Amino acid sequence: MQTDTLKQKAHQLLDKLPDSATWEDLMYQIYVRQTIEAGIKDSDEGRTTDVKDVRKKFGLNA
Fold first, then answer.
1. Each residue of 5-44: pLDDT tens digit?
2. Residue-wise burial string across 1-35, b where 16 or more C-beta atoms lie within 10 A, e elsewhere
3. H-helix or E-strand containing 11?
4. How many Å apart are CA 24 and CA 1, to the nearest integer?
5. DSSP-derived secondary structure letter, 37
6. Distance CA 43, CA 52 (A)
7. How far apart are CA 33 and CA 14, in angstroms?
8. pTM for the whole thing?
């Protein structure tokens, strides 16, 4: 499994953006990446709730 450094990940993110990208585009991509990584970490560490439990808590059907 390859482990990229933060700098390598940032370069990969930049390389995927079009030449016309704005600072806002870049910031949004960073935000999305951070959010996904935080969710994966929460899942790996057991800090999630099963969707069935959430539906039951809020009285939603299947």
1. 999 999 999 999 999 999 999 999 999 999 999 999 999 9
2. eeeeeeeeeeeeeeeeeeeeeeeeeeeeeeeeeee
3. helix 6-16
4. 32
5. H
6. 16
7. 12
8. 0.72
